[in-house]
Amino acid sequence: MFGTKWKRSIFSSASNFNKIDLKSKEWHTRLDKIHGLPIIHHHGYVCDLPTNHRFPMKKFHKVIDYLVSDRVIDRNKQVLEPDQVPMSIAENVHSHEYVDKFFNGKTTENEQRATGFVWSPGLASRVRYETGGTLLGALVSLQRGMACSTAGGTHHAFADRGAGFCLLNDLAVAAQYLLDEKLASRILIVDLDVHQGDGTANIFKNNKNVFTFSMHSRTNFPFRKEQSDLDIALEDGVEDDEFLNVLQDNLHDIVSTFRPDFVLYDAGVDPHKDDLLGKLNISDSGLMKRDLFVLSEITKKGIPVASVIGGGYSDSIDELAKRHTILHRAATKVWMQFNRLCL
Ligand SMILES: [Zn+2]
């Protein structure tokens, strides 16, 4: 629509469509307006779904609303809006055939059933904004140290198909872009969603420059697990202390042996005790301790980290959205600590 909030895309046009120029004036003008922890959000993260659909689509708007109303963030100073991921960038991870089918509404009924969504132009648009958001968060983190999206974590998407509410693998698309553009060379993906990051593990199974770490419920979806570089399969009912001990030991080891120069963090809240699809028993305070640990462990070593909210399921959209904001609250604390140390 002309005359409204038209903004120039960060994706340069014409011959160089698959590049984002981090030295361009447009990029710096955009970033210069951001003060404090960068938050990546777009109203286009949400699309219409049939009534009573199992996916809690409305949570993405509620997350940003709570962050603003609880004064965790200042909307005018901290929020950056992503562009939709272009086809050419999605195709660095996904097959051309699949991207063409998904972008243009040509997936079959069976393929759609496996994703949990009936295809619509709105769905494709939402997924492209969400993937663009994770990519933007990664690029901003390179320059600011940290960034958090209010969506993302679509880790069940494989190179040639969607699955389990995931259509494009935003974590893989962002990681591959950083590698291709030589913006990072050793990327760690920390996936603490209660479900295994099977799509991400499969996409990077032969890539030594990406370390996939998934800590998940052994008995939960996906029932056929892929092999991550490190999988920790937890038994049902695991509580805060055990979860945090296992996490601390393993993350510490990975960071010191793999020595990542970039981290993507999927902070799914479905390990929570009240989650409809989770089977673990983690409390609000357990999630907060988890996010504080991951973000400070990475940040104190000077490694940039981009976070996404991952999965979370509840009949109460308000409770769920509040739960997702634990990530942004934890990141804000770490951000303030980190920036004070740098003064
Ligand atoms: Zn999940």
From TrEMBL:
CDD domains: HDAC_classIV (cd09993). SUPFAM superfamilies: Arginase/deacetylase. The keyword Hydrolase applies. Pfam families: Hist_deacetyl. Residues 53-320 form the Histone deacetylase domain. It catalyses: N(6)-acetyl-L-lysyl-[histone] + H2O = L-lysyl-[histone] + acetate. Coiled coil: none annotated. Keywords: Hydrolase. The keyword Hydrolase applies. GO terms for molecular function: histone deacetylase activity, hydrolytic mechanism. PANTHER family: HISTONE DEACETYLASE 12, HISTONE DEACETYLASE HDAC1-RELATED. This is Histone deacetylase domain-containing protein.
